[in-house]
Amino acid sequence: MRLPSPFPFPQQRSRSSGGRSPFGGSSDGRSNGLKARLLIALAIVGFAVLSYYLKPGDMNEVTGEVERVALIDPEEEIQLGLQAAPEMVDMHGGQSRDRGGQQAVNIVGNQLLDALDRDLKQHDRHNPYRDAFRFTLLADPQTVNAFALPGGPVFITQALYDKFTTKGQLAGVLGHEIGHVLSRHANKQMARQGMFQGIAGAVGVLGGDMNSAQMGQMVSSVLSTSYGRDAELESDKWGVRLMAMAGYDPRAMIDVMQILDEASGGAGGPPEFLSTHPKPANRVEYIKRVIAEEFPNGVPEGLEK
After folding, report:
1. 133 — alpha (psi -120 to 50), left (phi > 0) or beta?
2. DSSP character string of 179-198
3. How many CA atoms within 13 Å lie on the side-chain side of 149?
4. Is 76 exposed, middle or buried (0-12, 13-18, 19+ CB in 10 A)?
5. In the annotation, is 177 catalytic?
6. Measuring CA to CA, how many Å separate 210 from each of 4, 23, 36, 260?
7. Which region holds residue 3: left if phi is over 0, alpha if psi is between -120 and 50, else beta?
8. How would DSSP label each residue in 55-104?
9. Side-chain-facing half-sphere of 22: CA atoms under 13 Å
10. What are phi and psi of 82, to 5 degrees?
């Protein structure tokens, strides 16, 4: 969104008009200018917020919850993800040549989806993205990462895959990424982005200079990253649930967080409020709480780690 140009300083009144400030300008003029900027800023915020909250909600076919999204038709999400997938593959050195690793990723990913299908059938719901899911092991040997695109494409780098010691750890990561797709996080973020940019524009207008515009962008960024952290925790919950459904011990997710913590250099990195991901140590405590809520009588015996 293009920010409005800064407002000009009000013209100086004559000495006879009174109200002259020590800095040579009119205090009344500056006051009027501030009021005008305030009114415009409030109008921008109001429009941005109302545009978001007055959108008709769309029911998530997996969770049954009504959500505000940018793309209502799941097929649009699927097409968006498929269009972006080749670029993501190229950015990470192409697909891995580790055929055994790719096969393991495919098997575990589809086990999680099959388990979800069985659970959804009991609740008369279905997964509209089921046939669009693709699991790709990327060749990147340095970047420890996994991510998902809207509609189904899920990726994991060779650098992360090589750190796993159990299938349960792989299941935890894939379950987390599947959770992003099922919760339509990217779609919901697109819907929110207009509101965030509107708030950023309002801050810039209110200040009336480039510093204020930059501050507005920072506000937008903080709001966006805060939503990102919430989405990560929600996906951690999906990971726990899907793992257990498919016969994997959800406590393997804790091992994954330890792997990520070591890969990120422990306590290093930006402050959590400026990061799109909660710190792994904080996610461990959250995962423990989720496991306790899902299994109040303890994790069942016999689950694969």
Report:
1. beta
2. HHHHTTHHHHHHHHHHHHHH
3. 21
4. middle
5. yes
6. 11, 22, 18, 38
7. beta
8. SPPEE-TTT--EE--S--SHHHHHHHHHHHHHHHHHHTTSB-S-HHHHHH
9. 0
10. -65, -35
- What is the predicted pLDDT for the residue at 6? 37
Residue 82, token pair as written in the block: 């498929």
147 vs 35: CA distance, rounded Å: 46
Report the candidate in 72, 82, 99, 86 with the shortest Cα–Cα distance to residue 153. 82
182/77 Cα distance (integer angstroms): 11
Please name the helix (run of DSSP H) or strand (run of DSSP E) that holds residue 135, with its range, or none. strand 134-138
Active-site annotation holder among 65, 67, 177, 234: 177
Rounded alpha-carbon distances, angstroms, from residue 90 to 95, 156, 161, 189: 8, 13, 18, 24
**What interhelical angle do 252-263 and 167-182 show, nearest 10?**
90
Q: Is the separation of the CB atoms in 41 and 206 below 8 Å? A: yes
Q: List the chain pLDDT tens, one digit each, 305 residues.
A: 443 433 333 344 444 444 444 444 455 656 666 676 667 667 656 655 665 566 667 999 999 999 989 889 999 999 999 999 999 999 999 999 999 999 999 999 999 999 999 999 999 999 999 999 999 999 999 999 999 999 999 999 999 999 999 999 999 999 999 999 999 998 988 887 766 666 666 566 555 555 545 554 554 444 444 457 888 999 999 999 999 999 999 999 999 999 998 887 754 454 433 345 677 778 999 999 999 999 999 999 999 99
What are residue 66's DSSP bridge partners? Answer: 59
The three-state secondary structure class of 284 is: helix
